[in-house]
Amino acid sequence: MTGGDISLYGALALGALYGAGFCYREKSVAGLVIKTGSTALLALWAYLAGGPLLLVAALALSSLGDLFLAMKGEAWLKPGMAAFFLAHVAYVALFWGLGAEERTLLVLAAQIVLVFGGAVFLRWLAPWLGEMRIPVFAYTAVILMMGAAALNLPPVLWPVTLGALMFIASDVILSLQLFKKPADVPAGTVSSLAVWILYFGGQALIGWGLLAALA
Q1: N or C end of the chain: which has fewer CB within 10 A?
Q2: pTM reported for the whole predicted model
Q3: What is the CA angle 198-202-204, rounded to 5?
Q4: Which among 167, 160, 170, 150 has a CA at the least distance from the CA of 206?
């Protein structure tokens, strides 16, 4: 068993543990360590497996974002968003570099639907954003660019496209938890599980899809 295999199995184990016992509870030191460790091990796996440096960077920055968002206090929200913003920038650069040479009408239609749908959702959410309006607008723009780039990937990279769309779906649910839900109402168990499964599963699919195609 290689170091990459150990890192992957460790990431999956920590990811399952966080989903089973921590993602729907109040923030804690144990939850912070497990959550951050799961995505950090994904980054280590990608590195040891010889994955593209942009993939490693995106996963490492996502782990940093997880660290910030697992901290108690709203002051960590902006640093967390900044880390994920940079992670999506890395994904955009990676996906556009791997994109199909010719964009089909189906892909173009899917990209238009994604961007238009994202713009409509953001416009609907805007009244609840307050001082986070500009950061959320910027973050939404880059994640939609990431999704559009993922939709243009070759068919062999379908796990990457699926993982990217799962990532976007997790952020949609998370944004409702952060901005639409009253501050004194805790996040629901089902929605918290959905956020984690879509997010962590999406990241793992992106890494696996790319590494499998490049192997």
Answers
A1: N
A2: 0.94
A3: 125
A4: 160
